[in-house]
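ugh ok so i messed up the first submission bc i forgot one of the chains. this is the corrected input, ALL of the components this time, i swear. 520 residues overall. if the numbers dont match what u have on ur side tell me asap before i send this to the collaborators (the ones from the other lab, u know who)
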Amino acid sequence: MPKKLLQGNEAIAQAAEAAGLQFFAGYPITPASEIIHEMVNKKHIKTMQMEDEIASINAVIGASLAGLKAMTATSGPGFSLMQESIGLAHMMEVPLVIVNVQRVGPSTGMPTLPAQGDVIQCIHGSHGDYFPIVFYPNSVFELFRYTIAAFNAAEESMSPVILLSDGYISHLYETIVPHYDCTITPRSRPALGMGNRHFTGLSHKGSVLKTSDVNNYRQLIASFREKQQMTAHRHNYFEYLECSRETDTLLISYGALSRAAYYFKNDFALYRPIRMFPAVEEIRKIAPRYKRIRMMEMNTGQYVYEIERMLHREVEFIPILGGRIDPKEIKQTLYEQ
Amino acid sequence: MVHKIVPVPEELRSKKIILAGEAGQGIKLMAHALANILAKLGKEISLNLVYDAAVRGGNIHAEIVYSDDPIDVPFFEEADIGLQLSKTPDPSIRAKLMLIESSACGAECKKCEIKCPASDRVPFEKLAIEQFNSPIFVNMIALGRLLSKIGINLEKVDFASEFPPQFFNENIKAIRYGYTYKD
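and heres the new structure output, hopefully the right one now
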């Protein structure tokens, strides 16, 4: 297969097609718009531009219940609007993929500049307890690869899976060979007409409402968590680079910022979660080898809490704000502190 | 199943290019054409376009890294070669060798804030108007100049797949003109 110069968002669209996407609904938003632009040119994918992101996520839920592999793509402001329906999709066990190409927020923020401010929103944006699987690649090739993984994980867990990106990686062009070495998980939920026709956001058992049955609710939530954990074990993606020199420091980053972290691979060991949630357990084995753990994020500190929670130790946090990834600036911060 | 990614090799032979200009000067087209040309010559490429959210106008710059090896860091502090077409140059654009639209800089160095230790002043706009009757060929003359500076043999480049048929011959002429241009 020949090499192609592909944009990150184009890679997401091509991978979605390869994964068997049949229905896409979305509302254009910088820096995710190229995904819907690509979709409208794909003959085998039914694409609808909706009136907003609330309609988009609900159209995708409907299409999935009707038996189609479905996806939507947005950025922070749209992702905020989708939250209520994401909770609904978890409660109804609807497999679908949501792409969030992050930009600087809050609100409309800085539309063309990258950020990582929606990380915690992925798991706590909707009300109640639910257990999404979240991937965050750091290159155009990885966007291709993990879009396919996201579709597979959605079908395996029967739940929405979130593919995080950012304005940098999604707008970056890189030469890649768009291939995948995994199998495509077939459609898991039977189409309407063949399966259960009653779907509800209320607590339930099968198609029967159980709105005041405490034990049933506990079993339901436990089954959601179990599905997520079992699926996550099959998609245990992370990167760990040991330093060629002796170092007592582990530098953690992810997404676009982790591309800048490679700049320092001769000075620090590097760790990068690709499956953000549930967090990859291997960090518990890697971290004790290092006296000092430092973490960079393009927010004021979101995933660092997850790492600290897992490791039960303090992590030095370095915020890189405002959408600018400048190796010189990062170098100054890293070596001055 | 644990997926552990093999570390990418050192970027030993990577070159960095930065193209800067104003909206409407064709920086995006030029950046895509240059990146595609290098990709078809077998290079690994990263291309990042940086522009504001303005509906019209504003500045744009393109950061290109090309290498024989996979590119792990697409960011850079200073490019090996830069092109500055803007009339109001952005001093944050840094390159070891800078090609500058001479009307922005003048015939002599004004010791401005642009970091260009070995600058090459070219009257791109004047040449486009005099030779091709339109300023829209500025980017193609500049592309030719860049291809010459980075040592690409024009005979090995498949231009037909890079540009739309409209103005194709004029674009190729402008590239060749820039490639062979001498003060």
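quick check: Chain B has a mean pLDDT of 85. that seems consistent at least. Residues 91 and 101 of chain B are 14 Å apart (CA to CA).
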